[in-house]
Design brief:
heterodimer, A: about 270 residues, alpha+beta, 6-stranded antiparallel sheet, 6 strands, about 35% helix, disordered C terminus, B: about 180 residues, mainly alpha, 8 helices, about 60% helix, about 0% strand, globular
Amino acid sequence: MAMDCLEALEWMDAGDAADPGTESCVQSAREHVSSCAHCRQVWPIHAAWSQVLEVALPAVPIPAGLRDRLQSACAPADIRSRPEQAPVRPARRSRRVFWSVALTACLLLLAWGLRTVWMPLPSMPLPQMYAGVGIEISTLPEFQGAFVPRLPSSWSSAFVLDRAFVRGYPESGVLGGQVAIVPFQYTLRGGADPLKGRLMMVPRDRFILEADAPTEPALPPDFAAAEVRYLPGGRGAYLVWSEDDLVFVCLMASGPADLHRFQRSLTGSRSLT
Amino acid sequence: MSDLQPAPAISLLIDEHYEFVYRYAYRLSGQQADAEDLTQQTFLAAQQHVDRLREPGAARSWLCTITRNSYLQSRRKVVEGLTVPELLETAVPAGPPEEITDEELQQALQTLPEEFRSPLILFYFREFSYKQIAACLDIPLGTVMSRIARAKGLLRQRLSPEVSTANSAAGMESSTALVKK
């Protein structure tokens, strides 16, 4: 059974994962590797990587108490609720406590409702954020808003913000004065073409990323901790994080790999030697 | 021993498989908190549908499928349609670095689409054959092999010492058209 290099290396990688009945494929792969100069050179490197990944990938520490939490979570409802063990309270006192709690809850609900009604809704819906990756910057006016645009702290070593290039959305629109956007480009050492992207800045209390969800309370605190996410339709990738009173969104149309390299280069990759 | 004890069947499943499920969930999500949530969702779903588990020997594969489906549901608003470039690795690849930190590994994993990440993770957990991975992920056997190979190649590129050295902070050249230094 003739095999090309790629197929042979894939079968050699299979090892014990190869199912019964495929021994002939594994044997053919071994014969190919032993007779092919390129594979003889490449296979030991593939094997070395496999050894590393075989050790590293499963090496995930288990959080303390996880088993007990899972067992508790899956306990039947009739075991969870033990009304016969509830303390017995005098009826009159319990009614006073109940009405006090109920009144407090109503007041809090009323206050939250009034705040929600009176405060303008958060901006930055998802489609606008997606559009930011490809929007023509020259079509946007200079930014005029209630906050002062600034760069993320970890970017200051590589960039200086020139206010003349910070753009905003038209005042008449829902994003007017709420979102600042600035293009940037960055060349990696050894890179031929610069990486190009957009940085968006939104006040923290005006930010909502998901179209139908409240602002995520657990935005990463800095650029280094942000997770690369994918834009739909293969439009690229983005990072989102918050620093103090601003939320930053870094968009890169060329994709997550470039964004990942950009992130690593700005946050300082550790030398492996 | 906790006062709260689930029904025996799910209790045994938890005891036997929770570590594996958590590790898989962590490698998928990249976050401990998300991984715990996924693990819990997995066993709660398993508890509801434990009657669908016909063979005890297939429990781990079944739980993996639930974990993956839960993860995909939680990510459906973010991850869509990313294509992975063809792996043109005709040259001899670089060998692995002496040490790979978990953070570096996880960051590299997160840059892979899930459909490449999952077979790679399950393969290197050394718990499943290719056929079992194919059944768990509901993809053809040949697709399992090719995705694992491509995912490995992409990881090699991201974790290779040559790439990391080129990205070191010292002497990094930066040029910006509009935001300049």
